[in-house]
Amino acid sequence: MSNKQSNLSASISTPQEFTDLLYRMLIEPQQEADLLKYILYVRKSTEGEERQARSLADQVAECEELSQQLGLNVVKVYRESESAKDPDIRPQFREMVDRIKAGRYDAIIAWHPDRLARNMKEAGELIDLLDKGVIRDLKFKSFSFENTASGKMLLGMAFVLSKQYSDQLSDNVKRGNKRSIAEGKYINTAKHGYYKDAAQFHHPNGNNFVLIKQAFQMKLNGKTLNDIILYINSNSYQHLGKLYEMNKSRLSEILRDPFYTGVLIYGADSIVDLTDKCDFIPAVSVIDFLRINKISDLTKGFKVTSQLRSKKYTSADLLRGRVVCGVCNFPFSSGITYKYLKNGSKKGYYYYRCENKKCNFHNKSIRAKVIVDFVIQLIRKNKLATKHNYKIYLNQMNTVIKAKAQELTSEKSSVVQKLNIKRKSLDQVKQLLLNETDEKVKLAFKLDYKLTLQKIEELEIRLDAINNILNDSKSFIFSQKEFLELFQKMPDIIAQTRDMKLLDTILQNMFLNFTIKNKKVLDFQAKEPFNILLDHKKSAAFLKGRGSGTRTRGLTVPNGAR
User: pTM of this prediction?
Assistant: First the structure.
């Protein structure tokens, strides 16, 4: 017997010691080999509302904190400053996906699904790679994901909801902008003739301000737009620090903009007297401005419409407008009411209330959980997870996809035809610009060129969107296995969903409306194909004699409301 064997025999004498040794020799090396290689992907757009999103550094810090908590093996960090609204424009994202396909990495960690995709082409690609096992796992700091059929369904919904999240973010940004405007600040590019200081206030921009001021005076004296344009452009006019060539369209906007009198109109509901908020110096008096812009023109340009009426903000969005009073048939209003607890905290309750003064149920309310509990019991009673129902679902989805494909194919032909016409028009304008010597005519051609090019870009974006939908339309039909698993787990998914936006999306995709009477669901209308899957005899019997049912765990609403 060798010395090595002798030493080993001396140190290993019990089954437990032998177990520990084998574990270290066989299991631990395999665990190390199986340790998934995660990519940490963070993204922040520099355009639109996403500029206000969480910074790249914040995303990295929070995702690294999560990876440490879960013991994840992060081997690469990708940072990207691009929008995810349109597909195939993010080089870092594409490199990441290609390297995962090549087997260099296994999984992804991100702050939220909307950092990975906000368009259905790339969202569908990620879900497809999950299905095939190419992407072995996804982790998110602010979203719970399980690699199951129902988990993928919820992930798909999260991708769809990214636009809704973006809209909510846009609302928050607009509210912040509205506060700034009320203070006399201006959050967009500086107006012509002015510059903005660090606090976003406008100040006259030297000779450029003098030229804009003179433009108003020349118009008041009867000069034509062409005369004014020639005067401005011949005096080295600058805007935003660069030489600027004034044109008719821009000059008309300037002459009709009340900003130059010291009155700022922003959006549909903000009108601010800048002279009252800061040391603003107008370029024209109100009297002269009104003379330049005849009353009829001014009225037409700044017509007060219903859009100027302020809209009451509400945070209560779960099935809003889809719950009807069974006494008077009027839609319930929805909202959140708060109750203060003994410990000093407050608890919120989502409710529906009848505000029809002629109704016997006027000013009475019901909790939203009554409807959520009803839906959970209804699905359990119907037992939707059957192969027969999957065939119904598959036929219905194929019919819908076929009809949508026909509609989109027709639209595609129209878009292609318009694109060809616009491209020919662009070539013609190019030739005219090359041959034209009259500077005034050239200005008109340049504007035509710019507008045509903009229209071509819009048509190309729409064409890409149509092609993406046509190519990917069938990728979101559930397989039979996914369908059965989804509807087996659907009651639990609904009961455990604490995010109000996500729950609202699930219920709105399944139901058109609910009718409530005596604080119970009297009737409901389901959407196709969910409506076709329901056994209407069972549903009718359930409506007549249901019991107390399953209780939900609650919903996530502002300030912890439920």
Answer: 0.38
